[in-house]
Amino acid sequence: MSTFGTLFRVTTYGESHCQSVGCIVDGVPPGLALSESDVQVQLRRRRPGQSNLTTPRNEEDLVHLQSGTENGVTLGTPIGLFVQNKDQRPHDYSETDLYPRPSHADWTYLEKYGIKASSGGGRSSARETIGRVAAGAIAEKYLHDAYGIEIVAFVSSVGKIHVPSSPPSTSPQTSGPADDADEAEDVLSQEFRDLLHTITREQVDQHTTRCPHPETAEKWSRSSTRLPIRIIRAKEASDSIGGTITCVIRGAPTGLGEPVFDKFEATLAHAMLSIPATKSFEIGSGFKGTEVPGSKHNDMFVKKEGGGLTTVTNWSGGIQGGITNGQDIYFRVGFKSPATISQAQATAQYDGTPGFLAARGRHDPCVVPRAVPIVEAMAAIVLLDQILIQNSRKAAATLLPRITTLPPSMVIPPRD
Amino acid sequence: MSTFGTLFRVTTYGESHCQSVGCIVDGVPPGLALSESDVQVQLRRRRPGQSNLTTPRNEEDLVHLQSGTENGVTLGTPIGLFVQNKDQRPHDYSETDLYPRPSHADWTYLEKYGIKASSGGGRSSARETIGRVAAGAIAEKYLHDAYGIEIVAFVSSVGKIHVPSSPPSTSPQTSGPADDADEAEDVLSQEFRDLLHTITREQVDQHTTRCPHPETAEKWSRSSTRLPIRIIRAKEASDSIGGTITCVIRGAPTGLGEPVFDKFEATLAHAMLSIPATKSFEIGSGFKGTEVPGSKHNDMFVKKEGGGLTTVTNWSGGIQGGITNGQDIYFRVGFKSPATISQAQATAQYDGTPGFLAARGRHDPCVVPRAVPIVEAMAAIVLLDQILIQNSRKAAATLLPRITTLPPSMVIPPRD
Amino acid sequence: MSTFGTLFRVTTYGESHCQSVGCIVDGVPPGLALSESDVQVQLRRRRPGQSNLTTPRNEEDLVHLQSGTENGVTLGTPIGLFVQNKDQRPHDYSETDLYPRPSHADWTYLEKYGIKASSGGGRSSARETIGRVAAGAIAEKYLHDAYGIEIVAFVSSVGKIHVPSSPPSTSPQTSGPADDADEAEDVLSQEFRDLLHTITREQVDQHTTRCPHPETAEKWSRSSTRLPIRIIRAKEASDSIGGTITCVIRGAPTGLGEPVFDKFEATLAHAMLSIPATKSFEIGSGFKGTEVPGSKHNDMFVKKEGGGLTTVTNWSGGIQGGITNGQDIYFRVGFKSPATISQAQATAQYDGTPGFLAARGRHDPCVVPRAVPIVEAMAAIVLLDQILIQNSRKAAATLLPRITTLPPSMVIPPRD
Amino acid sequence: MSTFGTLFRVTTYGESHCQSVGCIVDGVPPGLALSESDVQVQLRRRRPGQSNLTTPRNEEDLVHLQSGTENGVTLGTPIGLFVQNKDQRPHDYSETDLYPRPSHADWTYLEKYGIKASSGGGRSSARETIGRVAAGAIAEKYLHDAYGIEIVAFVSSVGKIHVPSSPPSTSPQTSGPADDADEAEDVLSQEFRDLLHTITREQVDQHTTRCPHPETAEKWSRSSTRLPIRIIRAKEASDSIGGTITCVIRGAPTGLGEPVFDKFEATLAHAMLSIPATKSFEIGSGFKGTEVPGSKHNDMFVKKEGGGLTTVTNWSGGIQGGITNGQDIYFRVGFKSPATISQAQATAQYDGTPGFLAARGRHDPCVVPRAVPIVEAMAAIVLLDQILIQNSRKAAATLLPRITTLPPSMVIPPRD
């Protein structure tokens, strides 16, 4: 349904052409400095009309906080907020009255509810994500102020053009069945790992595609306009193209994630796959990690400065056994090519009559640049919820009298 | 935590070396014929010791239903069940007392709880999945009896050896930057799509690796033993190897999935990523679908025999806008290489002292064959829960007086 | 937290002096005719300033539906709605800055959150209930249209003045220890049972106190003003007085309530005790039923016209074993006397300094007349949620093949 | 359904005549010393057959912990536990095959599920409460060890015989309309308040009826047998009688309870009304508090030794605005007279045929003495869950930088 989270809980509402879209954010820690501008900055990054790469429907998307703060500080009570839908034009989509858009939600919504919003995508519209982004911005504010946590997402591929992440091949693909050989190289190149460890939102936003890798951005760009050619090409072909977003969370504490069903990566995958148009998710080494032997894939432990352990490598993506280990958490989300395109498609009407549908109106040829703050928002929501739950456990354990008779194998006391 | 689901709800308990492992299954539809053998069949498929490919720890894993049925029929009340842990040997893992296993849950559990089970993997053990498989078998029984739904998972890759799924390349990879070209071919080959549409569990179980593709199984096998050489090789190297499991659900009704946060694929991803050792998930075209233009990726509609619509292709994997469309639902889950290996690894003790750890005991060099029924179980649990929720909505809508004044764009009445 | 319900789910926001108060209503059945006036009618009944019995703060409380409907019909998607807070005067409660109001939430909110709204009651204000009433009105619209269910609440006591509900005493209280005697009389008088069975909202609203019993209303009233003297007296004394509300649900189907923790009366009690100022709840015979022997208290079965069974009496209040039996569901909720009074009270400041607090401003001397629609709303929310859950189970059971071999004791087939 | 709680979560299973009854307790704080005897002590108090007042069905009810502890300490993972059903006699209740017991759950279970357990009360049996009591004992162990919290319940009435709680009447009920007079006296007598503040389980258990008030216990007793005559009388009449249980929680921290829907008393009422046979709940002054003017009912604040505030009186029952204030939390729960009695009742068969039912077998004439540990258990479960949630918030708030610019009315800093 439209509520997500246990202790930090977001509930959203709103279709594409109704009065407003918004959400209620419950469980916000009290005493947090928060103003509308903290939310607006991420809504602005989500907005369409930022360049000629995205749909020119020019909404201002100004957020209005309704409750839960006073004098710029959170009260701990629910924060209601909304953004007006300014673009409520009368219904003019005559062809989509007859045709469900292929691979869009028109037909499945009708199957599910027996009724559907008459204009636009209804609840499956991208405007639905405004509530998520706003809630995520609130979560992020807390994560930053209390923990110094940084969450940065960026576009890691458009179509077949990927930010390079594999290490240079040491063994040229020569004789012998390659699929029978052990994977000798690392999962990710040192350069990509450095990118994950240092990337900032400012760097991400320097290019309109939100790709922080100079060579790839260059490859995507025409020298004069510096626009990504892959997206331009899709647009010119009245077509669309998908892509992937990689996201990194830096500074998360250890111990987050609730076995066995709410492992950190499980709730993260839930959150990411709930974003419109997503179809895939991988964390750490992901699918590639299925091909690397354990001896190569395992992240060896080493003493950490300041106490405790850390790992030498981080193919696990910061999570082991469903629980964070203090390393960078990184994951990748795949967005399919947008379903609404303006070239004619041979499909069928709602009643089965075959025909051709060419979507009118203006549509994003590629959504991944705009989806960057949405991925960040959902990551922040998951992270804060898991922190609140784990904090509760730690506080509870701290209050108990210490049991001194446990065997070392259960508690691993300091040894000298 | 250890509960999953809304109306069909599973709660599990149990560590690797405690008295028993089990679960409580709540929300089972009343009036379902159910006996222990319905559950046992899937537990048997999950069991280790089925061949020399998996750990020889020979448990019988007999399930004991405790409640919720009478005369072989469900009462609608919770079903408690358990399987004894017969292999409760005294703690003898002296080295894992000193060393957290790299990429295993030993250290993160300690960070999370401040205490951990002294022997074995505790709650992160594969034995935890017994409860899931049992609950899934109950869900499946209902899905089969009420809807004729079939759920079949199989091993689609071990290491780098994949069941071929790409169509034959029509354009030989020649001139021009390949990453700049539109993806002209189909996402999946016709052969693989046929496999998805027809595969049965009997076929899957014909090979010990649960790979139903003859050529790949052949490739994996030594002629004499018919054992998969990739796994044998890992075992002989005291190493381990990962793989992927592909699963298909056939016969699911339309309309399942709860926007916006509990989209069908979102809850499915949640369920799959909660299985130990999983790191990645994709549904339908998945990551490959990010590279295919919308015009090629869209599943065109066509009239369905018997009424309604269906799609010509099914790159969406049976889900559009987070809601099932009646097509086959197929998805792929990646399992990393098992962390516990018996070759020596240069790592650190809990207190940071560097050293070498070589895991004693017997460990699976590859878990994917055994994980097949676990994937099926979690799929069944998600599916039944979503069916119950959607049934509720449909029943509610049916009771309302029909509104006859709605514009066609909202309801799409039959047209002639 | 601020979300209530499983399939029909309400989330509210809003303090007394913030921008607006409102809610998101998720899980509304699709295809329901719904307009703002359906909601407004109950908000109007909740409003203060309806007479000189309640606080004259004259809000208009106009509801604004934001989403989830189109052309006056629900889409099945969440309904966002809000009511402006028009009375956002600058903070002028100087004394309540120093003094936490005795028996109000000022001090406990500060203990809980470490911070509190500076003016008015914050989230503990009666304005919080606007979201509940709006959500309840939506639930009621469905319950009425789909089931013909009627929910009517009324004031059954103010202070010590109760609508008479006991039967006339047959045995004059004479010799012998009365507490040792069996309760010979009925739990409720025939007159009161008739009232429960026939009372309408129109009858309830005929008197400003929402007491539908003519004699009691008369007793409460001054001949000239027809105002309830008990409330007038409290007002004139700068004091306050509590009361009880009795509510009846007529027409609910059998089978509602989810054992063992979400029995119908358990969720109903949860809902009622979440209303501000409530301290007690009883269903059916309630506390009086603890004094009546089983032989007298049991509701005997009898054949029902049209099939099935019903009960001769209904001391159970329509619920047996936590599950509705088709009879009228009736219950009573106790509201303590309002905490905010304008007479001086000897209490302490936040820092412990003793002193006197006399609340300024205008305050309800008695909240029960205004609380009538709040009780109805929470009852409707509980009822619809339970109906949706039970409908899901029934739909699931219906799809199973009928098992013909069950013993009669499990299914009770028709006998001739 | 059969799961209760958010962070401390109990899921139960089991019918009266199945293999076993039990539960899974999730969210137990790690590092808690816990053994089976901690649980057994409360199960023993719940057992029937403790005296000739209760049913002689002599179960031993030995609990078997299955998981979640090692070396007598909790691991933080779920605790599975069960108690064998030893009394699984073949079905012999021929009359209850034909007749649904009046005011029992037989008929409503059949209406709900379309099927029912053939023998005994199925899931509505008192044996269902074993899981609750076991889970509550675990919660209590934590509450005791970490907070020193004490929870004590006792029987406060049987039939019409009540432990006296009203203060002595100062004004003899003479002239004038009593219902028009302000309530001049206190809500509870000083003696009863002292009882609440000091009562121990040892004192409660000194009498078989678990009534700690000597005069009342005396009144209930025959000199020779010291058995409560009211219960004996019911038994001899083949009848049954209800009663009330009062419970006090001492030592709970301030700030517990989650507005607006999960106020402390709301979740407590939910928990209590989920216990079989309960029909009413009141906290603090309860229904009597509706009759007392605010000036009399308000609990005035006073400086607390050691800092902070407390209240002079405690008519609120330790909760204000839905949040605990550190005072004793006390509440009362009403249990109706048991439905199963052995005298003949004129009722109808399942098919509507009129006839007489006299329940065979042995049945409790009064359940309240045995229900004492059940009330304590549910109170402990609610309390621990709320503590865990509030601890999470406090921990979250503590990590934020302190905002120094807030007006005093929001934070009330110390004043001199």
From TrEMBL, chains A, B, C, D:
The keyword Lyase applies. Its EC number is 4.2.3.5. GO terms for molecular function: chorismate synthase activity; FMN binding. One of its GO terms (biological process) is amino acid biosynthetic process. PROSITE patterns: CHORISMATE_SYNTHASE_1 (PS00787), CHORISMATE_SYNTHASE_2 (PS00788), CHORISMATE_SYNTHASE_3 (PS00789). InterPro entries: Chorismate_synth (IPR000453), Chorismate_synth_AroC_sf (IPR035904), Chorismate_synthase_CS (IPR020541). Reduced FMN (FMNH(2)). Residues 162-184, 203-223 are annotated as: Disordered. It catalyses: 5-O-(1-carboxyvinyl)-3-phosphoshikimate = chorismate + phosphate. Keywords: Amino-acid biosynthesis, Aromatic amino acid biosynthesis, Lyase. It holds the Pfam family Chorismate_synt. Residues 203-221 have a biased composition (Basic and acidic residues). GO terms for cellular component: cytosol. Its cofactor is FMNH2. PANTHER family: CHORISMATE SYNTHASE. HAMAP family: Chorismate_synth. Homotetramer. Belongs to the chorismate synthase family. This is Chorismate synthase. It comes from Hydnum rufescens UP504. The lineage of its organism: Eukaryota, Fungi, Dikarya, Basidiomycota, Agaricomycotina.
